[in-house]
Amino acid sequence: MITGHTVRTHEGSTLKMCSLALFPPPLPRGQTTLCEANNEMLPGTDTQARLKHDSSALSLYFPRESLKLHSRTEISSKAAFLDHSETLWMRSATAWRDGGFTGLLNEITNSHTEVPKWLTVSSGCILALLRWVSSFHGSLYPHLTLSSEDMIAEFSQVLNCATTPTLKHRLQRSVAAVQWKPLCASALAVACQSCLLVWHVDPCSLSTRPSSGCAQVLSHPGHSPVISIAWSPSGSLLVSASPVDTAMMVWDVAAESCVPLQRVGGGGVTFLSWSPDGSHVLASTPSALFRVWETRMWTCERWPCVKGRCQSGCWSPDGSRLLFTVQGETVIYALTFTDAPAGVPTSTSKGPQAAAVVADLSETTFNTPDGDIIVGGEIQSLAWDPRGERLAVHLKGDSQAADRPAVIAVFKTRTNPVFELLPCGFVQGEPGAEPRLMQFHPNFQHGALLTVCWSTGRITHVPFYFLSAGFPRFGLSSSPPLPCLQERPADFASHSLFTELIY
Amino acid sequence: MHVARYGKQRKIVRRKERRGYLLLPFFPPDMFSTKQSCWFIRKVVCWRAAASNAWAVLLLLPITAVFVILSRFSLLHPIQTISECTSLLTSTSAIFSFILLCGVILMVGFLNLEYYTVIPTVACSKIALLGQLLHPRQFVNSLVHCIMGIIMAWCCAVTIGGRYETLSYHCTQSDGSPQMCLNEYHLILLLAGAFVGLSHSLLGVIYNMNYVSFHTVKQYKYLCFKGSLLLVVKCSATQALYSVRNYIVVYFFLGYIPRTWMCKTLNLHLSSSVHPLDSITGLLDLSLLYHLWISAAFLLFTWYITLLLFRIFVTEVYSFPVQSSFPEDAHHCLPKVLADKQPMILKFLALQDLALLSQHSPSRRCEVFSLSQPGGHPHNWNAISKECLSLLTDLTQRLVAHHDTVATNGRAKSLSFGSERKTSSETSVTSGAEDLMSPRPTLLMKTPTSVFTRSIAEGSQSMLTSPFTPDLDSPFASPGLRHLIAPIDQGSPWYGTVQSPHVMRRAPKLWSTSTDSQINGSPLPSSASVPSPKKEPSKPSLLAQFLQNRKEQLPEASSQALFADSQAHIWALEGLSYLVQASFSEDQFGVVQTTLPSILSCMLVLQEAVDRHFKLPHASSKPVRSTSGMGDSTYKTLRFALRATLKTAIYRITTTFGDHLNAVQMSAEHRKRLQQFLEYKE
């Protein structure tokens, strides 16, 4: 049944599968999750009242419409001002500059009154031929027919978010991903529509709006729109991916040079994730295929999926285990990588033969006092905390239906004696708020700290207090002192760590 | 002083590194004076070069086949073309020319091995570049490339056949008598080969084509080659286009010289019925142009492929043992090899291996942290850390010396001249530039360079004072250029007046300082009003003026030169920081603890020096990205890479050790600096 590297459901394996039915029921309406302590998710109710109290914070709230960027494209505004008395040559030159070869052909075909007939006809024929070829290409890889905005909306890990105009750059349009450089306080990589920007912002600088001179522009022909980026954990390399480019770029940012890693199958790269120990990179494609790159010699393993493309993935802290989800399925798969014998420089790490299902997140109905709530379904993204003890799963839900909210399901993860996921609880926001982005704090002392960005523009920090059961980490406190759990949950709100930051 | 020694060492190293391995009659004899060479060169580098050459020769066969098909292809008779090509490829003349081509490829491979360098030569000014081009070594290189170009062009001519095939043919004179005539088509192809070979050799100097860089992204050789193949095709096609364009222009004006010379020496005649080719109608022959271009592209492509293969093979990771149980192998071990100054490639590969082992290989790290069996000394760690630290200290001192030179000149500028010409040694030491400044105000200033250009010029051109002078094969090193310099020295007004050795040492800097006399903003008196108590300003010779105009600085070149070998420092930083990070959990005996203070202080001092350097103008300006070309321009951005690596290295240590660093002994200033790193404020 298990053939090659095919992802299959691994029935009857030693791994225990966790499902949502084992979860404690979600909180009643109007309550938000504050934190986890003593193995329970503690709710909080009076957030609205507290917000009224902190009126100064409330004034910072921007409706998302006001943040919406000027979205009119260059071409549309130019049409209003175009001087139609321009000569054909001028127009052709402009079309060549703006639209490339196809633009030029379009221009020639459209201005049939001025050019000889054979030229119009032949350019029309070439244009038709080009369209036919590209449609053929597009039928192989349907995502290529999308416009770049649609492509970002389709493949980005973020659902429909607005950007803040703190860092402004001429080329910074349609930002799909941002990431801070590790082991550096000042470099921020931004994936834009046409290029990759690396901002160097002095953390001690007093200026609130760094000039565009602080940004390094990294671009490679054919590599746009950039949709996903990942820094190597050692901070030396940056990989970037574009759904229309079959090559994944490995950038040496300081030298502004890149090495394209070309693999044809899949038709592009949509999602990248670098394992925390730096040994592997997950690269998923728009087709039902993803690759796992090994970063010493940059070789890759192909993993064809049965159903859809790999939607999201995350790595365990030691880089030995990869959890991923496939579009159209409601399960979480796990892959285990065992490291090669150390000291042999050229050997690649030996990968597993098949992926195993570790959690089933199919729709489950919970009976709550407010009525039935259906939780589960498709998974948008995954996040694993740096200690490898909590796994946050963003369930997409259905924004139209009130009884199918988008929630974050949190699992406890255990690696010994067998790898398994145990239910922990749901993280819910205010009524109507959907999670957009989530990330774990890289260096939280007392357990794990999940930061969630909600659709209302609010950012909350949800701490999970637990004693680390795993191996001692480099962090200084091997046994984190538990905060005083005798306190009533409401008192946690006054603690500076999990104040709600209004945005 | 220490800094000065460094420069000399490097020079020695480079000379030894280039010692010849095959005897060639046209190489200078001093290259073969000492025959002993390092084990690494003998056992590793030579074999790698041989392997790359073997691959290049193997690849020559398909490349030649493609060239034959492309050069003889006719759109109307495709099948006939293919049958012709197959019969041609199996003919004896084709086999003979193929053997010739193999010989040329082997020669190119040998030249690659002979001329490669891991530290690029950065010319700080146009005159230095000219010096490099005129250097005897380079002259030999160009000559060999010319000859090889002619040989390859001859092979091309034979392969293309038709009107190109022979140098002479039978023709009838106007009076009807038969005689031998010169076939100009053959000649133009041969000369094109020579021209392309020459331009390849000269462009190699300008674009540093002999520089071998180490990539941060390691790939298997085959994948690396496959990835670069398209680039090589593009490069050779465009470069061939440019070369052929230039060649046609040259041939149009000067083509009659080789033609008449050929006719005279070989006693050939020019056919009156055939048009001479150095006319517009003769050169506007599309088929001729196509054949010239495809031959040039073929030639460049084979050479580039050889170069590419050489680079890929020679930069391959080599794994050195950390320690050996046999004493006779001790000099092959990493700690010993790192300390070697001898072949630079060995040091670089050793540092690369150190950086890799510190990141990826726990078992080898364990050997580094281990204690010696009798005695219990951490010899491995001590040797490795000492070598890395000395590398970093060297760089720090270089940077400080550079900055000091700049700062000195900046101060000298503000003084009013004439006032401090006391000929005291102190003046001449601190402001040697100032001494030179006043007497020569009449010189024309070409470019409106800033004050700082002058400063940079100062730092980089006085090759004896500043050891980081990039031009190791500089014009001043070659005797020919020394003659050019000498008259200026004597003609200059201060010649013989200032006896201070410091000033004398700075002789080559003369031009740069004098060029700056106008820029620094001080009101420039006319030559008559100069309060020069000792002499009249003498008029510089025309040659001097010409040279001086060529002397204008290439921007940021001195910065590039300063960091030319920084790949070594980058690896040292990575290796040290990863080892220190790993020592937090892996170092059982605490051997790293003893050197942690010195590592930290060394890094912090370097960080300070680098920060200061980047405040200089041009230092932080990004180089223009070269779009294409076989020249590797990695060295232009090494300083940025070093800065980023340094910061990351310090952060790596601070995030690993955290507050434990407070227990490490260090000066208050360094502690303050480190605290900023701990708080993520750098």
In short:
The complex is a heterodimer of chains A (503) and B (682). Chain A is an alpha+beta fold.
Secondary-structure element series of chain B: HHHHHHEEHHHHHHHHHHHHHHHHHHHHH
Low-confidence stretches of chain B: 1-35, 411-537
Give the percentage of residues in beta strands of chain B: under 5%
Q: Residue-averaged pLDDT of chain A, rounded? A: 76
Radius of gyration of chain A: 25 Å
Percent helix of chain A, as a range, is 10-25%
By DSSP (H or I, 4+ residues per run), the number of helices of chain A equals 8
Biggest β-sheet description of chain B: 2 strands, antiparallel
Question: Structural class given helices, strands, pairing of chain A?
Answer: alpha+beta
Secondary-structure content class of chain B: mainly alpha
Let me know the number of strands of chain A: 28
What is the count of β-strands of chain B? 2
Helix content of chain B: 55-70%
Number of domain units of chain B: 2
Mean pLDDT of chain B: 77
| Strand line-up in the sheet with most strands of chain A | 1-19-18-17-16
Instruction: Identify the most extensive interface between protein chains.
Output: A-B, 31 and 42 residues
How far apart the termini of chain A lie comes to 51 Å
Subcellular location (chain B): Nucleus membrane; Nucleus, Nuclear pore complex
InterPro entries (chain B): Nucleoporin_prot_Ndc1/Nup
Membrane topology (chain B): Multi-pass membrane protein
Region (Disordered) (chain B): 414-441, 510-540
Structure description:
Chain B: Belongs to the NDC1 family. Chain B: It is a multi-pass membrane protein. Chain B: This is Nucleoporin NDC1. Chain B: Pfam families: Ndc1_Nup. The complex is a heterodimer of chains A (503) and B (682). Helix content of chain A is 16%, strand content 31%. By secondary structure, chain A is α+β, with helices and mostly antiparallel strands. In chain A, the strands form 8 sheets. A 5-stranded mixed β-sheet of chain A has the order 1-19-18-17-16, with no helix packed on it. A 4-stranded antiparallel β-sheet of chain A has the order 4-5-6-7, with no helix packed on it. In chain A, strands 8-9-10-11 form a 4-stranded antiparallel β-sheet, with no helix packed on it. In chain A, β26 and β27 (447-454) form a beta hairpin. In chain A, α5 packs across α6. The radius of gyration of chain A is 25 Å and the shape is globular. Chain A starts with 17 loop residues before the first strand and ends in an 11-residue tail after the last helix. Chain B is mainly α and 682 residues long. Helices cover 62% and strands 1% of the residues of chain B. Chain B has helices at residues 2-17, 39-72, 78-89, 92-115, 126-134, 136-160, 184-206, 221-254, 256-266, 280-283, 286-314, 334-339, 344-360, 362-369, 379-414, 425-430, 432-437, 451-461, 479-491, 501-505, 510-515, 542-550, 557-562, 566-586, 591-614, 638-657, 668-678; strands at residues 168-172, 178-182. Chain B has a two-stranded antiparallel sheet with strand order 1-2. In chain B, β1 (168-172) and β2 (178-182) form a beta hairpin. In chain B, α14 (362-369) crosses α24 and α24 (566-586) packs parallel to α26 (638-657). Chain B is elongated. Chain B starts with a helix and ends with a helix. The interface between A and B is large, with 31 and 42 residues.
